[in-house]
Amino acid sequence: MSFDETTQEDGEEEQAVAAVSLAQVKHIILILSGKGGVGKSSVTIQTALSLCIMGYKVGVLDIDLTGPSLPRMFGLEGKSIFQGADGWMPVKVDTNAEASLSVMSLGFLLGDRGNSVVWRGPKKTAMIKQFIKDVYWGELDYLLIDTPPGTSDEHISIAENLRYAEPDGALVVTTPQSVATSDVKKELNFCKKVNLNVLGIIENMSGFICPYCAECTNIFSSGGGERLAKEFEVPYLGNIPIDPKFVELIENQKTEEKTLTELYEASPIYQIFKDIMQRVLDQKHPGRMS
Ligand SMILES: Nc1ncnc2c1ncn2[C@@H]1O[C@H](COP(=O)(O)OP(=O)(O)OP(=O)(O)O)[C@@H](O)[C@H]1O
Questions:
Q1: How large is the greatest C-alpha to C-alpha distance in the chain, in angstroms?
Q2: How close is the Cα of 9 to the center of ligand 1, in Å?
Q3: Entry pTM
Q4: Whose Cα sits closest to atom 8 in ligand 1?
């Protein structure tokens, strides 16, 4: 069934589900990309860490059901979720920040790294509904939803489940190489079709930060993301360079004494990303509880 074909009964059920489970969530942001491997999950993590450093309470929902990578990237591999009195409890990330950061992903239910699920549409749809309905987030300033690449069953399902939840909108991630392909345009057209506001386009892996002198050099042509943003009349939020230290930070976080938020706050990439985040916050979306 497509997004347009949902029945009134479905609509009422979705409205009720979102109203109860997301009652204490002020803002909802989806992270989308036209293609895999462009750094969508990395942008999700950076958005979560930046908001947390800025003092917001953040939750992250990973609905990439076939390749959930967030537990590993947040350093939470092997952790499990448990059923509390109010629903499934998301896993907390250790932060030095006052604000909390918690994560829910199918990866926590799959056990070993490398396990993946091959599910048909209806099962994925049911899982996403359950994630929206049964996770107890408590009070959150921001719920970030990391989606799989492209526009698949998961996207249709999350759009349906959130259609009454008034999300702030979507961050669309691309790279300089893939901006020219039709995948990003498809993603932007999908947002239009399901009435999802586009908070802006982020061009990732655009330029290179030298690990020795921290200088940023353009190695591929850039500016495509900005042109696309103009064409679709959506904001352009900025570009993130390739930063080998960011990959190291994610890979080596467990051996460090500091928390992930402390490590990220001290990294050069945070200095760039926080400006991107500020452009999102400056849009002053009223939020769901205002
Ligand atoms: N700005 C960056 N600098 C350096 N490495 C990066 C950057 N952004 C992403 N990467 C690296 O690129 C790889 C792919 O990134 P990521 O997993 O975030 O992409 P994705 O779009 O979520 O992929 P998929 O859709 O397949 O899950 C990862 O190894 C990540 O560490």
A1: 59
A2: 39
A3: 0.90
A4: 39
